[in-house]
Amino acid sequence: MLVFFAFVILLTLTVANDNKLTLFRLKKREDWFVDGINLFFQGILIPILQITVIYQLYQHLLPNFQSSLNLHPIVAFCFSFVFVDYLYYWNHRLFHTRWLWYVHQVHHTVTQMDVLGTSRNTLWTSFLIIYLWVHALFIYLLQDSSWYVAGVSLSSALDLWRHSVFTPKPTSLFYRCLSPWLILPQNHAWHHASSGTVGNYGANFKLWDKIHGTYFECDKAPDSLGVETKLSLTQKLFLPFNYSQGDLSL
Question: CA 66, CA 56: separation in Å to the nearest integer?
């Protein structure tokens, strides 16, 4: 529910703001279609697969471990919000290597920070993201997965915000409280910069980028976003094998 409300609130605020609504009007029909089908795929279909097919797969592979893990609620929350976030950092960096960039480049065709473009990907990219497999695994293993799911929901809501145009002002208290540790929209915008800025791979925390030397600091958003590709609509959805130059560095 948190993710749904975050999406509705961010979308409503965008539509209600004339300047930000203009960004929606500038979107190409192809981008609307790709974003829409991916939001359905990642927002509805993938969660269903997690609690059905993938969950049943673990029942088959690990029949004696269902509900075998009893964690304190805070520990369970930290597993999803902190530990899995670190795993995702490396997962994301792998997407920027020469082996997986051709799949991930579709996400970087976004030319404006847009909550609707959060899930823009090739449709089968979700099967290469650890969230699909790790979340289903912990839900299967935990006796009480409610706090783990709460961490998942918060991460997903922050992901929507991180891809939106609503960036906190550097002079605000909100910015000063969150900026030292949390990846903000302006930080993630630099990850999408057309200039090919290397870094800011983290989802929730800046700590991982800072530890591994991939953090790029800037209070304001870059002048332009997105990489240019010659991908057709079919390639964007299924077979993005037309290699483009982009951020291919670890």
Answer: 11
Residue (of 224, 225, 206) closest to 216 by Cα position: 206
Residue 131 within a domain: yes
- For the segment 83-92, what is each residue's pLDDT rounded down to a tens digit? 999 999 999 9
Q: C-alpha angle 208/78/181, rounded to 5°?
A: 40
Q: What are phi and psi of 106, to 5 degrees?
A: -60, -40
* Structural domain total, the chain: 1
Cβ atoms of 216 and 183 closer than 8 Å: no
Domain region containing 158? 31-237
Q: Is the pTM of this model over 0.85?
A: yes
- pLDDT tens per residue, range 117-149: 899 999 999 999 999 999 999 999 999 999 999
Residue 228, amino acid = E
In a domain, 21, yes or no: no
